[in-house]
Amino acid sequence: MSKKVLNLIVTSILLITLTGCSNPPSAPATPAPTPVATTNQTTVYMIKLDDNGATTGSVQVGCGDSAIPVAATASYQFIPTDPVASINAAMLTLLNTTATQYQPQSLMNSLAGQTMTIQSVDQSGTQYTVHLNGSFSFGGTCDMPRVKAQVEETIKKAALPGNTFIIDWNGGGQTAWNKAFSLKD
Question: Model pTM?
Answer without folding.
Answer: 0.79
